[in-house]
Specification:
four-stranded antiparallel β-sheet, 11 strands
């Protein structure tokens, strides 16, 4: 059974930086994608960025150039470096793993709060 645990959230002033971490336990298959999502108060959860097992990355337009997703496969971790934060980045950030391929299973972490003050 895979479990994901996020950490690194907190309160930061606009313009500041945070690094989020997501640690996975259990078996991670070579074909997988790890991603970060976020959910602002009263809003739907939205995709932020993802990275495949081979390191291909994708970003939402709102974070491109400011956020960087990277992973440490040995440590089974995915990280999100967030720079130039603004108030609109506030929300609960969730880690997601899509493990395997046909079939695949999806796992979510419990989330970590990021609050950006103006």
């Amino acid at each position: 059974q895979v479990q994901l645990v996020e950490s690194g959230g907190g309160l930061v002033q606009a313009g500041g930086s945070l690094r989020l971490s997501c640690s996975a336990t259990g078996t991670i298959y070579s074909i997988n994608t790890m991603a970060w999502y976020r959910q602002a108060p009263g809003m739907q959860r939205e995709w932020v960025a993802d990275i495949t097992g081979t390191g291909t990355t994708n970003y939402a337009g709102s974070v491109k150039g400011r956020f960087t997703i990277f992973r440490d496969n040995f440590k089974k971790m995915v990280l999100l470096q967030m720079n130039s934060l603004n108030v609109e980045d506030t929300g609960v950030y969730y880690c997601k793993l899509v493990n395997g391929w046909q079939p695949s299973r999806t796992y979510w972490g419990q989330g970590t709060q990021v609050t950006v003050s103006s």
